[in-house]
Structure formats: structure tokens, C-alpha cells
Amino acid sequence: MMSIKDITIVITSFKSENKIKECLNSIDKQCQIINVENSNNQDFKSQIENEFENVKCILTGENLGYGKANNIGLKEVKTKYALILNPDTKLYPETLNNFIKLANEIKNFAIIGPGIVEGDDSHKSSIKNATKQTSEVKGYAMLMNLSQFEDIGFFDENIFFFLEEIDLCKRLKRKNKAIYYSPTTRVRHEGGKSHDNSFNYEMELSRNWHWMWSTFYYNKKHNGYLIALLIVLPKLFNAIFKFFTYSIFRNKEKKEIYKQRYLGLINSISGKTSWYRPKV
């Protein structure tokens, strides 16, 4: 029978000092945690490991992105199960026990995704739907049965940010692996708040660049170049139109956002890597 000691939690962070402690404080102290920090911040590592005895902090030395950093953490896991969490999530007191109960009942699952409570949790009592199989789950909270990943690997490290979990789920389904969604196993997610607020605009530019890059890359990988091109062409024209529109109205912030959307897409279409990094 699975117990809490059979789960290791993996959290990838970047400039998350203001949020990650709330996440860590919500986790049962019996549970081992691997925090992969996408920097070389020795002060952050010392502070986290001194304050939380159940946390091992790994510094990557640079910003490797969500997928590659998670892979580093997953390769360090010694338990049968890993729970991927984002720094801006919090577990409820019953969350881990619900995951354990499901894992003992289902057994041969690859991933179980929880019901996500966004921000205010006042509507939590209305969540009553039963656990069911699904084609994909969100990446900010995923319980992974690691034995199911031996033949497909973990996250695609070509992707810096966006659609990594969708790509992973797609590869799992092609191998007939079972993915479940459990609305009653709740995780609170604040969304887009895993970093310091002073970096908001630069992170917004990065998100727009990588969203477009990943959209083309994902579709090319799973549907072929031509279909991917057909999917993204409207987005390309829209980005160009919005860029010139905001140039005319002298809205520099919006103009720069659509410039990055255009550049992310052009880089992906031309086969270049997801090289853009937030300037923070």
C-alpha cells in the first residue's frame, strides 16, 4: 500500500522567493521535497534548506526552463511517485491523502491531475465530480507514477515554457498510458504569481515569446510542419497587425508584447531553439 513516504515532491522555481515558502508550508513535513531553482542563488538555497529540513534545493546555475529543470528533479527522485508542483500552488490538508487513496485504488495510472482552485477558494464545496480518465492535465500539479515513464522519458527539453505537460500527456496516450483527473483532489493555484511582482512586465514578454514558439513547435512535432504552419498563420498575421496598431497609438508596452509574439513564432518556424530568456 502506498503511503506519504512513497511520494517525492518536485518544485521548479525562478525568482520565486516571495511565493515558494507558502507552498512549502502547505506540504506535510513527512514528504521529501526537491526544489530545482533555475539560478545560481546560493543565498536562496541556504535559506530554503535551513528553514525546511525536508527540502533539498538544487541550483541549475542558469534558467533552464520548466521542463528541463523538472527533469533534473525527477531524476533525483528515489520514491515510486513524484508530485510536480508550481511555486504558486498550495496543498489543502487532505490533498496528499486523497492522492494516496487514488493511487492505491487505480494502481496502473501514469498521471493523476487534481482539481485546481483558482485564487479564492470559496466555491470549493461545489466540486463533487468523480475521478475519470482524460487526455491531458495541467502542469502546475501532477502526480506521476514513475514506472510508467521508463519507455517515453519525461518532459521534452526543447521546450522552455508552455505545452510541456500537454506534449508529455500526448506521448503517454500514444503508449496507451492512463491519465486521470480528480476534481475532488484539490490544489490551490494562484496562476502567474510564482515570481516577484517587480518582474511582471519582463516575464509577460517572455511568456508571449515562448507561447508562440511552443505553439508551433508542439504542432509541428505532433501534426507535421504544414499543419502547424496553417494553425499559426492567423496568429502571425494578428501579431503583425497588433504590432503596427499599437505603434500608431504609441502604446510601447503592447507594441513590445506583440513584437515578442511575432519573434517567438518566426524563430520556431525557422527551426531555431527556444533561446529567449527573461531579462531579470
What is the secondary structure topology, with strand pairs?
Elements: E1 7-13, H1 20-25, E2 32-37, H2 42-51, E3 55-59, H3 66-76, E4 81-85, E5 89-91, H4 95-106, E6 109-118, E7 132-133, E8 141-145, H5 164-174, E9 178-189, H6 200-223, H7 225-248, H8 252-269
Parallel strand pairs: 1-2, 1-4, 2-3, 6-9
Antiparallel strand pairs: 4-8, 5-9, 6-8, 7-9
Can you put this structure into words, describing what you see?
By secondary structure, the protein is α/β, with parallel strands linked by helices. The protein has two domains: 4-189, Spore Coat Polysaccharide Biosynthesis Protein SpsA, Chain A; 199-269. It contains eight helices and nine strands. The protein has helices at 20-25, 42-51, 66-76, 95-106, 164-174, 200-223, 225-248, 252-269; strands at 7-13, 32-37, 55-59, 81-85, 89-91, 109-118, 132-133, 141-145, 178-189. It is globular and about 60 Å long. Helix 1 links the parallel strand 1 (7-13) and strand 2 (32-37).
The top level CATH class name of the largest domain: Alpha Beta
Unreliable sequence segments? 122-126
CATH architecture of the largest domain: Alpha-Beta Complex
Measured distance between first and last alpha carbons: 45 Å
Q: Could you estimate the helical fraction of the residues in percent?
A: 40-55%
- The CATH superfamily name of the largest domain is Spore Coat Polysaccharide Biosynthesis Protein SpsA, Chain A
| CATH fold group of the largest domain | Spore Coat Polysaccharide Biosynthesis Protein SpsA, Chain A
Find the count of extended strands (DSSP E, 2+ residues): 9
